[in-house]
Description:
It contains 9 helices and no strands. The protein is mainly alpha-helical and 209 residues long. Helix 4 packs antiparallel against helix 5 (118-130), helix 7 packs antiparallel against helix 8 and helix 8 crosses helix 9 (192-208). The longest helix is centred in the first third of the chain and has 63 residues, at 2-64. It is elongated, with a radius of gyration of 32 Å.
Amino acid sequence: MSDIFHEINEELRADRARLMMRRYGGYVIGGVLAIIVLVGARQAYMYWDQSHRENVANQYQAAVLSDDIVGNLADLTNESSGYGMLAQFATAAELAKSDPASAEAMYLTLAEDNNLEAVYREGALILSVIHAPDGVSFDEKMARLDGIDHIASPWASLKLEWQIAISLEQGDAATAMAYMQTWKSLASPLTPRARARQQLLEQVLAVNE
């Protein structure tokens, strides 16, 4: 008797399973297929992304070693990866050798790009001052440098170095000394350029006494 009940239960289970499959089987199969497609698409994208990054890296390396750095980097400057930013910095550095105004404009564009981290924007701002053409005023250079936090920024020491140098170029020893005092309060050690400018400042101050 128990065998009959067991067979009936098995048949009922089978009937319920067939009913569930008829009702929801399409959803289950569709879900499985969707997962397979998504996994496949993700794997394909990862392969494409890796291949694309390798191609861009090779293109960048070949460009910076070529005789026409600016021309060969042109296609990379709009690249969305980090190589796009590198291409812009490298292009600006090359332009600075013969066309300071164009280099300055590119550095200022990088400095105003809010998609970049602050460390890169501030670095570009300092470079725009370093490579500024002759027509850029003292006040404009100082205004750019004043936009960099002399405490929080990793460029603080270099920023103050250039503020000291620009002040000395203008013959303003008092302002240069004020920047020097701020500079000395930083914990970072003086670079060789910094020591040279410090000696120059001390000589200028000695003459003005």
